[in-house]
Amino acid sequence: MDIQKCIIIGSGPAGYTAAIYAARANLDPVMYVGSEPGGQLMITTDVENYPGYPDGVQGPVMMEDFRKQAERFGTKIFYNVVTEVDFSQDVHTLTLDNGEKVQAHTVVIATGASAKWLGLPSEKAFMNKGVSACAVCDGFFFKGQKVAVVGGGDTAAEEATYLSKLSPEVHLLVRRDEMRASKIMQDRVMRTENIKIHWNTEAREILGNGEVTGVRVQNNQTKEVTDLDITGFFVAIGHSPNTEIFHNILTMDETGYIVTKGKTTETNIPGVFASGDAQDRKYRQAVTAAGTGCMAALDAEAYLVEKGII
């Protein structure tokens, strides 16, 4: 079995950037793109905050550009899913969904994270037509318009506060009679005049005709149903890092994000590096994911040099 210098698990901005840097360092990287080639940007329409695209770009188009650049430098890309890992030896062994086993001296993890959704049929119908899971990514499109945010934790509080600077009215839908957010975040929300909190409230249906025009909500105590006029609906109930196959192998925080050492992408396993949303629970932006992908490739190169492999 050939031993690769570097295998990248996952794609998206982190994986493709890691591939570009690893390829240019003559690491001959092999990428397994996983079950969601291109990551979350494949379901994102307009991306206007990534440097180098002054007129904005469609998410899938940007990921196609990333892929072409990685391949241009010699990255070998395979559309397999890594289903199991064995990091117990110096040479790491990965099992693919077709049963094949592959080995590498270094592994870069770029499996990303997936937004949690409410599960409403209308939520899926209006995806990218007014429904979003990222206010920082998409809030600008709703400048001057009324919006709603679902959630009661820090993420929802942060998104509502961010949107309050762009929108005249932000409806925060909290399904309990209190928020789970930290005290400082709650205080910030309470002090923001154009955030209206709806306690004990759940979204029942997103309304619209081609694009979002409102949301039907219900008070889960009184059962009263109300329609709110909005054009943007932001789901902020958290993200789930796609790190299940690394449980009990890599050090993670309480929610499953991979813990890296200091200002590096090093994990607790030598030769294994984590990048992008699989290890970033705070920023979750394409540009920061790309940055950590670059770091992971450079860390992998340094490791291979130190070990005398290259």
Automatic annotation (TrEMBL):
Top-level taxon of the source organism: Bacteria
Catalysed conversion reaction: [thioredoxin]-dithiol + NADP(+) = [thioredoxin]-disulfide + NADPH + H(+)
Cofactor(s) needed for function: FAD
Keyword Flavoprotein belongs to the record: yes
Matching InterPro entries: FAD/NAD-bd_sf (IPR036188), FAD/NAD-binding_dom (IPR023753), Ferredoxin-NADP_redctase_2 (IPR050097), Pyr_nucl-diS_OxRdtase_2_AS (IPR008255), Thioredox_Rdtase (IPR005982)
Catalytic class of the enzyme: oxidoreductase
Keywords for the protein's UniProt record, in alphabetical order: Disulfide bond, FAD, Flavoprotein, NADP, Oxidoreductase, Redox-active center
GO molecular function annotation: thioredoxin-disulfide reductase (NADPH) activity
Keyword Repeat: no
Cofactor note: Binds 1 FAD per subunit.
Signal peptide (from-to): none
Family under the similarity heading: Belongs to the class-II pyridine nucleotide-disulfide oxidoreductase family.
Summary of subunit composition and partner proteins: Homodimer.
Name the UniProt record assigns to this protein: Thioredoxin reductase
Annotated source species: Membranihabitans marinus
